[in-house]
Specification:
By secondary structure, this protein is mainly alpha-helical. The protein has four helices and no strands.
């Protein structure tokens, strides 16, 4: 996640907050529907950010600064790679089963 020069914190809204929501959801953190729909950094988003920070050994500020943004990006990339490996393994197993049947 890239910040456009300012930290993200409670009370903010817009595209960067929507991107933050998408990344947190991808990583398994819950964001309230109303905050997601309105692209608002509310209480639920702050709780998710603080939980992410805690899980990754970062200071729990509920503010997304450059360090938190970088950690989100690293974690998201690892998650995408892990999901790809799982999908690939499932596809290989399916092909093997299909070849046994044919």
């Amino acid at each position: 996640m890239r910040l456009s020069g300012q930290n993200l914190r409670a009370g903010m809204a817009g595209d960067e907050v929507a991107e933050l929501h998408a990344e947190l959801i991808l990583l398994g953190f819950a964001i309230p529907d109303t905050e997601r729909r309105d692209q608002v950094f509310g209480v639920g988003t702050a709780q998710a950010v603080a939980a992410f920070q805690k899980a990754h050994g970062l200071r729990e500020t509920a503010v997304v600064d450059r360090r938190v943004a970088a950690a989100l990006t690293r974690t998201e990339r690892r998650q995408v790679v892990a999901d790809f490996h799982i999908a690939l393994a499932n596809a290989i197993n399916l092909i093997r089963r299909l070849l046994r049947v044919a």
